[in-house]
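Please fill in the sequence for the structure shown.

STRUCTURE ENCODING:
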């Protein structure tokens, strides 16, 4: 006879009590599991900028308190009866990524699922597909969760089946720490380069903002695709020094050394501009610079989320005459189940050395982890649950 878990299940989550408040470790109850969901014991979760937007209250339609987290890694504890991947077993190591509607033509064709018509509401509103939540406080008050189909800032998470990325075997503890950010930050940077822009070895590429997304883009360009000219731009010298070690051929410190970033990129490219540009910062001025430094036929990809209301100025005539393109890319336009194993393989071959950019913090130290990430002391913080 098959027995499932008995609800409610008490666990602990790192929740945001109200917009603008700090993350707080709080006991919560998991009230139920839908047939298309799994329970996952979270081992690690990466910290990503979108979690901070939930904390500051910058995401619309979220009811507080809520549980953030969307770069989880862990082990399967329970499997709902209609979960379609019958190869999944209790105890399997899994990484967690975004969810999608599973019904529109992009979802049906996996073409990719990041173009799902319901991508923003399903992933950012901190609720199940039908708007409900499976979590409450101990007194029964609802707690929002299911962020990106996973809310991985908890010891046990209710995960939608489409957020599950099964790993080829049970992974070691340190691998679960290392690979947790694959499901958002790393696939976003690497997917933008490998799946969307696809530069050839002789194309010229510039990456603005050397956080974890920028480093993933740099590794994909310089080490996986072996692009010969990759320019890294940031404000923190330590990150640029590290970018050189990862294959950046030129670096520009836009904070102190160089006032005219576009002019500097033009100098490096012999006045021609770049073929491909990626912005991970979402800063309006940087997006403008990214479009301005494109050469004939170049494509600029916005990957970092700007705050609400940001406007930019573009010289429309030059944009047209030079046949420039500016695109938005969400989650690298990848299908995580297919793409993440490729990145893990690249890591094993030494071409995606993410072990050199992340640091693990105990969950109690989350505020220190955020401060270290925001000051540029570290590139990627991963919290251990
Ligand atoms: Zn869809
Ligand atoms: Zn993210």
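FILLED IN BY: designer on duty
SEQUENCE:
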């Amino acid at each position: 006879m098959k027995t499932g878990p008995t609800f409610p299940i008490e666990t602990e989550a790192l929740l945001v009590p109200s917009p603008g408040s700090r993350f707080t470790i709080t006991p919560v109850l998991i009230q139920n599991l839908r047939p298309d969901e799994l329970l996952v014991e979270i081992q690690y979760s990466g910290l990503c900028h979108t979690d901070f937007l939930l904390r500051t209250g910058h995401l619309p339609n979220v009811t507080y308190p809520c549980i953030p987290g969307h770069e989880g890694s862990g082990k399967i504890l329970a499997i709902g009866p209609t979960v379609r991947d019958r190869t999944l077993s209790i105890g399997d190591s899994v990484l967690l990524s975004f969810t999608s509607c599973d019904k529109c033509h992009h979802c049906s064709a996996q073409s990719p699922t990041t173009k799902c018509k319901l991508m923003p509401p399903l992933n950012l509103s901190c609720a199940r597909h039908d708007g409900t939540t499976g979590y409450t406080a101990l007194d029964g008050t609802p707690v929002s969760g299911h962020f990106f189909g996973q809310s991985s800032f908890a010891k046990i998470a209710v995960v939608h089946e489409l957020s599950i990325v099964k790993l080829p075997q049970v992974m070691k503890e340190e691998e679960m720490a290392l690979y947790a950010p694959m499901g958002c930050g790393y696939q976003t940077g690497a997917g933008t380069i490998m799946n969307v822009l696809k530069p050839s070895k002789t194309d010229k590429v510039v990456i603005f903002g050397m956080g974890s997304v920028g480093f993933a883009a740099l590794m994909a360009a310089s080490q996986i695709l072996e692009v010969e000219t990759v320019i890294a731009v940031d404000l923190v010298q330590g990150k640029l020094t590290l970018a050189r070690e990862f294959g950046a051929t030129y670096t520009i410190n836009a904070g102190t050394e160089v006032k005219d970033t576009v002019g500097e990129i033009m100098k490096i490219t012999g006045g021609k501009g770049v073929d491909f540009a990626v912005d991970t910062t979402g800063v309006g001025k940087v997006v403008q610079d990214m479009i301005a430094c494109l050469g004939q036929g170049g494509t600029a990809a916005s990957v970092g989320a700007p705050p609400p209301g940001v406007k930019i100025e573009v010289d429309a005539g030059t944009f047209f005459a030079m046949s420039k393109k500016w695109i938005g890319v969400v989650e690298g336009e990848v299908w995580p189940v297919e793409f993440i194993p490729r990145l893990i393989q690249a890591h094993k071959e030494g071409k995606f050395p993410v072990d050199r950019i992340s640091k693990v913090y105990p969950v109690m130290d989350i505020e220190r982890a955020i401060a270290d990430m925001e000051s540029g002391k570290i590139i990627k913080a991963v919290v251990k649950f």
